[in-house]
Amino acid sequence: MPTLEVRDLRVRFGRTEALRGVTLDLPTGVTGLTGANGAGKSTLIRTLATLQRPGAGRLIWDGQDVTRRPGPLRRVLGYVPQEGGAYPHLTPTEFLQYMGAAKRLNARAVDAQIPALLDAVNLGGHAHRPVGTFSGGMARRVLIAQALLGDPRLLILDEPSVGLDAGERLRFQTLIREHARRAAVLLVTHIREDLDATADRLLTLEGGVIVRPGQPHLAAAPDRTPLVGLEIARA
Ligand SMILES: Nc1ncnc2c1ncn2[C@@H]1O[C@H](COP(=O)(O)OP(=O)(O)OP(=O)(O)O)[C@@H](O)[C@H]1O
Ligand SMILES: [Mg+2]
User: Fold this and answer.
1) Which residues form the ABC transporter domain (predicted)?
2) Is 162's C-beta closer than 6 angstroms to any atom of ligand 1?
3) pLDDT by residue for the chain (235 residues), tens digit each?
């Protein structure tokens, strides 16, 4: 199964070095990513989603360098951004159709997939109601559903479960675990129980570099050697 290899990725915003040489592998399964506010998690996620161009470094998908030509990566990508939502006047069905078209998926295949996806996030009963009338947790679940359109081999999730109640959180965890049997999943979250329930391995970003999980806070030193993912035992 394909792996995303991230090599020495660097992103700078003016004087801020948001990513200072990130190296990691995303194989099949769930990779959990934690780190303090401002550590660079969303910057990393946006770069992997090919929305942010890296200043340096490489992205390799399935053995192919996609840094400059992101097409093959975009075709296999599902993405939940930290911010943003569906257009309020659209129903979830219409929004998923719209996203399917944006992803250039086959319209019939999308229509066939939508009911199962909405059921998977427990919105089957709200398929034809404008998203603008949804609660915060319901709107978040629409975004989770759109990320799964086309059965993506690479799923990157930036704090996807914020605002989900206990029952919906459990459903989300099950959905992610199920999907991760056939996809590389990167899950950014501050929610420990989501990591415990889903993550096969855990990474921590600190000051724009990957550090060991569980390490006490250290001032980010420019010469710190970035570490590649540590495996954590699954219960
Ligand atoms: N578009 C931008 N322009 C300027 N600076 C930015 C931009 N995006 C991020 N940064 C800076 O890059 C650093 C990393 O931000 P990022 O959003 O990646 O953090 P994060 O780990 O996702 O934090 P959080 O847990 O709060 O979501 C921060 O110092 C932030 O201020
Ligand atoms: Mg963020």
Assistant:
1) 4-232
2) no
3) 899 999 999 999 999 999 999 999 999 999 999 999 999 999 999 999 999 999 999 999 999 999 999 999 999 999 999 998 889 999 999 999 999 999 999 999 999 999 999 999 999 999 999 999 999 999 999 999 999 999 999 999 999 999 999 999 999 999 999 999 999 999 999 999 999 999 999 999 999 999 965 443 343 333 333 344 444 434 3
CB 38 less than 6 A from any atom of ligand 1: yes
Instruction: Give yes or no for residue 191 CB within 6 A of ligand 1.
Output: no
Domain residues for the domain of 24 are: 1-76+153-160+184-235
CA pair distance 143, 160, nearest whole angstrom: 8
Q: Are strands 4-13 and 209-211 parallel, antiparallel or unpaired?
A: unpaired
Between CA 41 and CA 22 the distance in angstroms is 11
Per-residue DSSP letter, 95: H
Closest ligand 1 atom number to CA of residue 46:
18
- Is the same domain home to 66 and 89? no
Q: Residue 25: which H helix or E strand, with range?
A: strand 16-26
